[in-house]
């Protein structure tokens, strides 16, 4: 039987969220063990679109907009730190991103939403409205059906796979230990920490952090928490390599450092089906070609579906367990955008620092329905 404090922190979940947290704890000098279920898990991290995105985040929750802006501001130093520690370039670019609109009503609605959010934040929310001529001046390949766009200077993108690799390398370089291919079946508080059963092994830790995405739903009750998360499928198309034309990422189309174009524009409630459908892929491709006609006729080399981790209102759950002190729950569907925040201020809070005011409202109790 393992001792209750073999390590300081045990992180459950080896996706972007879990690895960012594990790296943050290891960087702070803790003994950290990371458990990853392996390729049988629903891997949102490996189906991610890769946006570091602020525009439109938190339209009805200004605190989430603040949290996202803070992370976007931390990202350049975060990427540079990972490159310095590992030699891995995560291909961060933050030239500003565009929300492309194909009709005037769509543009007007977007402007109203972003203006209201800017007002709620006291003006501290940068965005500009571009007409069709301005968009084409910025991206000459823009199609004639685009009537305008909103642009935010904080937006950008990075490579999800390179980020995952860099986080894991930096984590292990700091002394962290990764155990892959193991599924957690039990978590037992011991008074001095926790005993975690995974496969045939028992791991002991003073602190347990649940970062297992959709798996958090089953794990959270083991430590007196709730994770009412559901899958939401997104589908992505990837083209052959093209000459660089899209320096500025858009909400649904981006060109990677390798020259391929990624296209994604679907939100589907289909349970745990992470496949693809011709109807959705056709719709996604058609809109992308309307925005950028040069994409019409290019070869699609890959498609995939992946499951987002969605709470009932779409926002994160960040929670410490009252019933089992030392246990924490972290779940969100913006793991790339929030990676810098997770490795920094969120880890600082879980290590005993002050809870960031921006996340005070992101507890599972907000989903409780009051009845008479």
Describe the structure.
The protein has about 375 residues and is an alpha+beta fold. The protein folds into 3 domains: about 5-50 and about 160-230 and about 315-365, FAD/NAD(P)-binding domain (3-Layer(bba) Sandwich); about 95-155, no CATH class; about 230-310, D-Amino Acid Oxidase, subunit A, domain 2 (D-Amino Acid Oxidase, Chain A, domain 2, 2-Layer Sandwich). It contains 8 helices and 17 strands. It has helices at about 15-25, 60-85, 105-120, 130-140, 160-175, 215-220, 280-290, 340-350, and strands at about 5-10, 30-35, 50, 95-100, 130, 150, 155, 175-180, 185-190, 195-200, 200-210, 230-240, 255, 260-265, 300-310, 315-320, 325-330. Strands 1, 2, 8, 9, 10, 11, 16 and 17 form an 8-stranded mixed β-sheet that branches. Helix 1 (about 15-25) packs parallel to helix 5 (about 160-175) and helix 1 packs across helix 8. The chain is globular.
Look at the structure and name the CATH superfamily of the largest domain: FAD/NAD(P)-binding domain
Alpha plus pi helix count: 8
Task: Give unreliable regions as ranges.
Answer: none
Write the element-wise H/E pattern from the N-terminal end onward. EHEEHEHEHEEHEEEEHEEEHEEEH
* Multimerization state: single chain
**Structural class computed from helices and strand pairing:** alpha+beta
**Total domains, how many?**
3
CATH class of the largest domain equals Alpha Beta
Briefly note the CATH topology name of the largest domain. FAD/NAD(P)-binding domain
């Amino acid at each position: 039987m393992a001792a209750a404090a073999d390590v300081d922190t045990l992180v459950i979940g080896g996706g972007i969220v879990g690895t960012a947290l594990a790296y943050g704890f290891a960087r702070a000098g803790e003994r950290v063990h990371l458990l990853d279920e392996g390729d049988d898990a629903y891997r949102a991290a490996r189906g991610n679109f890769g946006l570091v995105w602020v525009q439109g985040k938190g339209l009805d929750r200004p605190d989430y907009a603040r949290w996202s802006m803070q992370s976007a501001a931390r990202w350049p130093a975060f990427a540079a730190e990972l490159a310095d520690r590992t030699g891995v370039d995560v291909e961060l670019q933050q030239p500003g991103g565009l929300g492309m609109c194909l009709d005037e009503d769509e543009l007007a609605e977007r402007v109203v939403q972003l203006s209201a959010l800017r007002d709620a934040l006291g003006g501290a929310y940068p965005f500009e409205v571009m007409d069709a001529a301005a968009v084409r001046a910025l991206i000459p390949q823009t199609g004639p059906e685009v009537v305008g766009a909103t642009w935010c200077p904080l937006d950008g993108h990075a490579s999800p796979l390179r980020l995952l690799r860099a986080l894991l390398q930096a984590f292990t370089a700091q002394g962290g230990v990764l155990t892959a291919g193991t599924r957690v079946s039990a978590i037992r508080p011991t008074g001095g920490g926790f005993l975690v059963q995974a496969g045939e092994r028992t791991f002991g830790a003073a602190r347990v952090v649940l970062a297992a995405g959709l798996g958090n739903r089953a794990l959270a009750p083991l430590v007196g928490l709730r994770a009412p998360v559901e899958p939401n499928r997104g589908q992505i198309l990837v083209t052959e390599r093209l000459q660089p034309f899209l320096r500025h990422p858009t909400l649904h189309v981006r060109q990677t450092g390798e020259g391929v174009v990624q296209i994604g524009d679907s939100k589907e409630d289909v349970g745990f089906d992470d496949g693809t459908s011709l109807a959705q892929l056709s719709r996604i491709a058609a809109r992308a070609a309307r925005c950028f006609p040069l994409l019409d006729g290019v070869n699609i080399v890959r498609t995939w579906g992946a499951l987002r981790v969605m709470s009932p209102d779409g926002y994160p759950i960040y929670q410490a367990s009252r019933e089992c002190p030392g246990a924490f729950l972290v779940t969100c569907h913006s793991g790339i955008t929030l990676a810098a925040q997770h490795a920094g201020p969120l880890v600082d809070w879980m290590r005993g620092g002050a809870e960031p005011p921006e996340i005070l409202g992101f507890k599972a109790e907000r989903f409780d329905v009051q009845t008479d």
